[in-house]
Amino acid sequence: MILLLSSSLFLLVILSFSIQKDNFSPSKFYILFLIIYFADIFINEKSIYVYVTYMLYILFGFLFVFIDRYSNNKPTRSILNKMVLNQRRILLVLWILTLIPILSQLYLISYFGGLIEYFASLKLRVLDWRGLGIPLILKQIMPIVNIIFLI
Question: H helices then E strands: how many in the chain?
Fold first, then answer.
């Protein structure tokens, strides 16, 4: 089964690079995530359900490669292209949004009494972090702000 999965994944990589010349296409990122997050399948023995699920992911990868190939590659005129955006204002808003998770993280560190105690609480975080939902949720918006910043 591992031989079938690895040969299918290898064929998917070859097909992706031969059909779609763009190195940063969404299908290539999908394949990269398949390789990174499921590397354990090729190392340790898994159940048949895991192998079938991974094969479905690979089949979706073939579908994504062909969708990527035949998608419309012409740039579209969006509302953002028509608007004149003030870059300084956008960066200021992003920095202010970045302060929210940073201040939330600093609150959690000070709540536990310092960095060492915060790291010690990670082991029993379900019990130790009980009742700290708002700072934990505010801390989790950092990846969203990063994605907006990169866009």
Answer: 10, 0
**The pair of three-digit structure tokens given for residue 105, joined into one six-digit string:** 């993280």
Which band of pLDDT confidence, cut at 50, 70 and 90, is reported for residue 10? Answer: very high
Closest CA to 16 of 74, 60, 76, 72: 60
Structure tokens at 90: 């956008």
Residues 131, 135, 141, 142, Cα dihedral to 10°: -130
Please give the mean pLDDT across all residues of the chain.
82
Alpha-helical runs (H) found in 46-86: 48-70, 79-82
What is the rounded average pLDDT of the residues 106-119? 91
Contact 145, 101 (CB under 8 A): yes
Q: Are 149 and 94 in contact, with CB atoms under 8 Å apart?
A: yes
